[in-house]
Design brief:
Shape of chain A: flat
Order of helices and strands of chain B: HHHH
CATH superfamily of chain B: Fumarate reductase/succinate dehydrogenase, transmembrane subunit
Order of helices and strands of chain A: HHHHEEHH
Strand order of the largest sheet of chain A: 1-2
CATH superfamily of the largest domain in chain A: Fumarate reductase/succinate dehydrogenase, transmembrane subunit
Helix content of chain B: 55-70%
CATH topology of chain B: 3 helical TM bundles of succinate and fumarate reductases
Oligomer: heterotrimer
Distance between the termini of chain B: 64 Å
Mean pLDDT of chain B: 91
Radius of gyration of chain B: 21 Å
Radius of gyration of chain A: 22 Å
CATH class of chain B: Mainly Alpha
Number of strands of chain A: 2
CATH architecture of the largest domain in chain A: Up-down Bundle
Number of domains of chain B: 1
Chains: A mainly alpha (about 130), B mainly alpha (about 130), C alpha+beta (about 250)
Low-confidence stretches of chain A: none
Number of domains of chain A: 2
Largest sheet of chain B: none
Shape of chain B: elongated
Chain lengths: ~130, ~130, ~250
């Protein structure tokens, strides 16, 4: 008996079909605003190297509405990325002690604590303590 | 011995170079999650959000912070590795969306990450060397 | 008895060039599984319907099917959970042989390639291989796979590139690599190290969501990425001894 298997097509829009795939694509898309973030830093690094006038010009550029909008998007995207990335960590690198594994929630919380710590450290480096005395 | 080549007729596949790109992607992913929120919040959006004053972001302080030898860590952690992270996802995204796969897309993606990273390192080095 | 609308994908290779939908109405109660409903249709309404099944208790892995677009085991899915009716289609990403039956040979080839069995020297004098609970815990979770193929239907990378070894095969390779009694890791790594091995995965993670046995293949594949990276680093620093793969490469 001859066979005639039907191969279902895989259209480029496959990821629209299920929430899990849309979530995946959203996660992958977080790198687009990230590229704008890196471009902002590159511009800042260039301005900082050029001198004080150029730096002041950069600070003014940062306050343009469209730049604020895109950097806000980058911030939200980085937090969303962090949320997904932290959850993957216990799956990819489970920390084992004998026959037990460190609970996932503990590893995720520790990573969020790290984010908070970095924010506080940067705030301190920028003279946040002095400025608010 | 049960291991011999007769029961595996298929040839040994080529080792992928993906470990290099995946390692950079993963390191970048950690940096994006850990460093980007802080920098976006306090530096890029600090003044509009009222979290820091323009005085706190003054030229002298930033110059001293960024071009300090430890500032290289910021260039690597907030720019170089995130670039490799981003271009890795874009490379795979092009395959996912059936837009492009193969050598050219790969060269363009990782090539641009290398190029922009070099630019960031060059910007940092020229000033650091001059002031240091 | 209440009844429910069911829409089935039909494909008769002798007559059809593409699949089409056919509607049925079945009687059901709280204990009616999707598999029970299919049996009811075949017995009472259309004896030409084809589907695959065996154990009816979620252990043989034969009755994988798409229920409203989601990969499920027909025996473990109940009509009571779908009051608005349901659509049944053959498992995604595989060629359809007939009606709800797919050709899984691709998955089985991948499974064979990674040697999913213990490769070990016999224990001395007929003694059993001993293993501590901690050694067992390292791989136990990954040993629950029943080869049903739901994870392949969930994996877009397998759909995009059928040469990708895929979730279950890699999870099983990882399961034996982690087994303290096994010494066949070197034979499996060549497959895992390739573009179609662990590196074909982008951690969509949906394979783990649909797994009916809680195996978490996504974790196995991505732990495999670390293993493959380390394997590459070791290979890099190891002095080239014998050109082992010379005649095989390329």
């Amino acid at each position: 008996m001859s066979r005639k298997p039907y191969q279902p097509p895989m259209p480029a829009s496959w990821w629209l079909k299920h929430p899990a795939y849309r979530f995946y694509m959203l996660r992958e898309a977080t790198v687009v605003p990230l590229l704008f973030f890196v471009a902002s830093l590159l511009y800042g690094l260039y301005a900082l190297g050029q001198g004080e006038a150029s730096w002041l010009h950069y600070l003014a550029w940062l306050q343009q509405p469209w730049v604020i909008a895109l950097n806000s998007l980058a911030l939200v995207a980085s937090l969303f990325h962090a949320w997904t990335f932290f959850a993957l960590f216990p799956q990819v690198m489970p920390l084992r002690f004998g026959s037990r594994t460190l609970p996932a929630w503990l590893m995720v919380s520790a990573q969020w604590a790290g984010v908070l710590l970095v924010i506080l450290a940067l705030w301190w480096l920028l003279g946040g303590v002095d400025a608010h005395q | 011995m049960r291991t011999n080549k007769q029961d595996t007729p298929q040839t040994t596949p080529r080792r992928s170079d993906e470990p290099i790109w995946w390692s950079l992607f993963s390191a970048g992913g950690v940096c994006v999650a850990m460093l980007v929120p802080a920098i976006a919040l306090l530096v890029l959006l600090g003044i509009p959000l009222g979290l820091v004053s323009a005085e706190q972001l003054n030229y002298q302080r930033l110059q001293a912070l960024v071009f300090h030898p430890l500032g290289l860590g910021v260039v690597l952690g907030a720019m170089v590795l995130p670039l490799f992270h981003a271009m890795h996802r874009i490379h795979h995204g092009l395959h996912d969306l059936k837009l492009a796969h193969g050598r050219l897309a790969k060269w363009l993606c990782y090539g641009s990450a290398v190029l922009l990273s070099s630019l960031a390192l060059w910007l940092w080095l020229t000033v650091s060397m001059a002031s240091g | 008895m209440p009844t429910l609308e069911m829409r089935l994908q039909r494909y008769r290779p002798e007559q059809d060039s593409a699949p089409h939908w056919q509607d049925f109405r079945v009687e059901y109660d709280d204990s009616t599984s999707v598999l029970d409903a299919l049996e009811q249709i075949k017995a009472e309404q259309d004896s030409s319907l084809s589907y695959r099944w065996s154990c009816r208790m979620a252990i043989c892995g034969s009755c994988g099917i798409m229920v409203n677009g989601v990969p499920k085991l027909g025996c473990k899915t109940f009509l009571r959970d779908y009051p608005k009716g349901l659509q049944l289609a053959p498992l995604g990403n595989f060629p359809v042989e007939k009606d709800l039956i797919v050709d899984m040979s691709r998955f089985l080839e991948h499974l064979t390639a990674i040697k999913p069995y213990l490769i070990a020297e016999a224990a001395p004098q007929g003694q059993p291989h001993r293993q501590t609970p901690a050694q067992l815990a390292r791989y136990k979770q990954f040993s629950n796979c029943i080869n049903c193929g739901l994870c392949y239907a969930a994996c877009p990378q397998f759909g995009l590139k059928p040469d990708f070894l895929g979730p279950a095969a890699i999870a099983l390779a990882h399961r034996y690599n982690l087994d303290s009694r096994d010494s066949g890791k070197a034979e499996r790594m060549a497959q895992l190290n390739s573009d179609n091995g662990v590196w074909g995965c982008t951690f969509v993670g949906y394979c783990s969501t649909v797994c009916p046995k809680g195996v978490d293949p996504a974790a196995a594949v991505n732990q495999g990425k670390i293993a493959s990276t380390l394997d590459g680093v070791i290979q890099w620093f190891k002095p080239a001894k014998e050109p082992r793969n010379k005649e095989q490469s390329k």
